[in-house]
User: What shape does this take?
Amino acid sequence: MATAFTFPGQGSQSVGMGKDLAEAFPEARAVFDEVDEALGEKLSAVIFDGPEETLTLTANAQPALMAVSMALIRVLEARGLKIEQAASYVAGHSLGEYSALCAAGMFSIADTARLLRIRGNAMQAAVPAGEGAMAAIIGLEHEDVEAACAEGAAHGAVQIANDNGGGQLVISGLKPAVEAAAVAATAKGAKRALMLPVSAPFHSSLMQPAADAMREALAGVDKKAPVVPVIANVRAAPVSDPEDIAALLVEQVTGQVRWRETVAWFAANGVTTLAEIGAGKVLTGLARRIDRSVTGLNVSGAADIDPFLAAIADQNA
Assistant: This one.
């Protein structure tokens, strides 16, 4: 009857997220203040009041989503929750892996905010606007999408970026190659091949300059062993050594987010509950599609705090 805490990635952001937490709980307000101070700007004003196009910028969305997740963690902790007692593992989707590690004590909130600002800027700058692309491939098996990418590779770099489970994979690379792979995927029987409105080809080999930037940034930050293991995106297996985790975070920039395999690993290793900590319910929905034997919980706002604590207490009773 183990529980894992999971943390959402980019795309879960919305204007106003976390505002009720900051108004209701001083512990939450303190997190947003700490992120603002670390970044030298009032990101909290953008999180709470928009505009949406500013919040959606990669360099803002990444630290913003972490701030909401950590505000929730601090509120839960103030009410007696200890991650090392409540959860056996943590995991996060792409940038959510940083939130997971911050929650597990590997990074401070301030350092995590700065790392994610560097990550967001570096990912945005790695490829000139309009040259890269991503596409969602719906209803096709992993090996068939890999084969479609192999066909698209005649036009340039393209690879699987996210395996989200439930028949949803995302491909990423140079725009002509992604378009060709999407056509090939449709020919192989995909229900849909949808070009995504993203600003860069995330989790592809084209992100190598961003990976190099993160290697340098992570080398210079204080790292502690997480209080519970993280299931790393690129390995879909538990890791506890801080230097190993940092190396995998560098690899993650150009590597595949193996979320389907992560949830499958949880289900095969005694985890019965996945508790999503942060904005929205994307990961809860994905888990339901991947393995219905795993129960999903989520906490995203002030009204969820008490029901979440009660549910976790029941799981650990």
